[in-house]
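Human: My hope is that you can spare some time for a protein that puzzles me. I am handing you a single protein, as its sequence and its fold in token form. Could you go through the record with me and say what the backbone is doing? Take your time, and here it is.
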Amino acid sequence: MTVMTDQDVKQSEPANLVDECFQAPTPDKVFAAAVSDHKPRILLLYGSLRKRSFSRLVVEESARILEKMGAETRIFNPSGLPLPDDADAEHEKVQELRNLVQWSEGMVWCSPERHGAMTGIMKAQIDWIPLALGAVRPTQGKTLAVMQVCGGSQSFNVVNQLRVLGRWMRMVTIPNQSSVAKAWAEFDDNNRMKPSGYYDRIVDVLEELMKFTYLVRDRSDYLVDRYSERKESAEELMKRVNQRDI
């Protein structure tokens, strides 16, 4: 077997590229879009229906911080949302959730840890969000911050799972994250979060979410434009043209 040198590799052409579908990314293309001047639109989801839900309290505090940073926020209340496949997609709570997802440019997901995992309430919300609504992919290219609350010592099981889901939903999940240990001790009698390193970390996460949202929102269509999908679209077009000729 002949081993190619580094110079040989550089001088040879890729074997299987379809030239008309191949596009080399450039800074001009990445930053071609005009800059939007509206407030970043952030949807926040939480994963507990308890009267004093700490994931909801974290989300409410996060919304206050995001509004202070210049965002427009919406919080979805999962009460009344049916289990996935237990109702039609036209159910009013499903439609409310999907409309909010389409409205948003970024999201915050926060769930308690229950039996070492996110709650079913959290997962049900994500499962009602489809990868595609007709020709629209409602989550693709949008930003995501993940958080969790813990009843005891700090854990990262939930944020790790939420990251997997964010990637599956084709979202830009930011590097930073928040896990609040002993969440019951972090809120005062007015359900406001106390000063702490956990609070500061949430501010860090939301600051990063805003920065990534500004970076991504005007160019998400270009960032998720893929060679394989351009190639597939070209092949489908060719099939339609050929069928007309038959």
